[in-house]
Amino acid sequence: MPQLKVAHQSWPLATAFTISRGSRTSAEVVVAEISDGDHVGRAECMPYARYDETVEGVIADIERFAGPVSDGLDRAALQEALPAGAARNALDCALWDLEAKRKSKPVWQLAGLGAPGPLVTAYTLSLDTPENMAKAAAENAHRPLMKLKLTGDGDIARVSAVREAAPDTRIIVDANEGWSPEMVEPFSAELAPLGVEMIEQPIPAGQDAVLADCAHPVPVCADESCHTSADLEALDGRYEFVNIKLDKTGGLTEALILRDAARARGMKIMVGCMIATSLAMAPAVLVAQGAEVVDLDGPLLLAKDHPDGLAYEGSTLSPPEPALWG
Fold first, then answer.
1. Domain count of the fold of the chain
2. Does the annotation count 101 as an active-site position?
3. CATH of the domain at 92
4. pLDDT value at position 21?
5. What pTM value is reported for the model?
6. Are residues 82 and 156 both part of a single domain?
7. Which one is catalytic: 149, 248, 268, 304?
């Protein structure tokens, strides 16, 4: 009978990381392992306070499934038994990994996908003063794509400073709901000449209906406003992109459904991550194949990663090896 284990892990960051909602110095993740005695499937999630998640709460949610896992819980039943979120993500991806190990087949084959190839990821600059963000940009000016964390007041100065420091780098920005609705039109108009290609979740999710009537020359991406495919209908006319994160979708199973449903609506795809290790990034690599924007730089922001973690060469990452996941 399969056995479930759950553990909390803390991974220090290379430097403090700041967004509009606050700062952190470590990634506090939860790892689920499902063993059948011969094979072990594992996966990682990151509980997120923005969605009322805690490490303790997510561990408790996962532990409630020890009995069902032992009784042979499958991914389809899991989707019905647990809502989207970090806990379901860990269980869903651990079940995918276990099946791959049992059948000696990679997850991409089990899911009916094409073989994954390397991806170019954005590199995220933490929210800071224009001067400090420009310094960080200059140090990373060799990277093809940067994502800047923004907050509202002073953002145009921040982006201008980064653009001057890294004139050849593509730029996207993420306000993490930090702007007011009145900022969208003027900020978008000022960011366009600076070459900004996308604005991620500029205003709070509960206020984003105004985007339908907001002129924004820079395309807008839904992050906090889009968790699963059930959210897509409400996004029509508001957003051009959706940001798919497995901790929001509740795992790879729903992430693939969301990707295909968004494509069918004519939306562009961003695949993002929380700050976590390569174990959390690995399933997202499959979702990110063909995405317009890939943002899977979590391990690059850590002081250290798993020894069998994803291989990054600059901003290019290779698909996971079976020893890590899948």
1. 2
2. no
3. 3.30.390.10
4. 83
5. 0.97
6. no
7. 149
